[in-house]
Write the structure tokens for this entry.
Amino acid sequence: LKTLYFKDTYLDYSLNFLSEIPTLVNFDMSLNNIFAKYSFIYQNLIILESLYISNTDLEYLEDKIDISHFKRLMILDMSQNKLKKIEKNYFSYNYFIEYLNLSHNQIETI
């Protein structure tokens, strides 16, 4: 499995099954409220190239989503969330990001 779309599915459970899909390249979980209860910290998704997490009510990155393990990440969409702050070194391990969408957030500090 290389592409998985969970867009607008009202996810309300852990994504632990992702540890069984190390071949995942594209993952879309936009329009879900997954971050209200769960974190997205999966070290085995090292070949992930695109991650869409827009409209997920994401407020804080540090304890909810760790992208440092996604060394091949090229597309990251975190638009239309509630982000207020992005730590200085948050993207320091993601050398290949070509598209980063942070629009429609409440970012005060980068």
About this structure: The mean pLDDT is 86. Strands lie at 3-5, 26-28, 50-52, 75-77, 99-101. Residues 14 and 38 are 6 Å apart (CA to CA). The chain is about 0% helix and 15% strand.
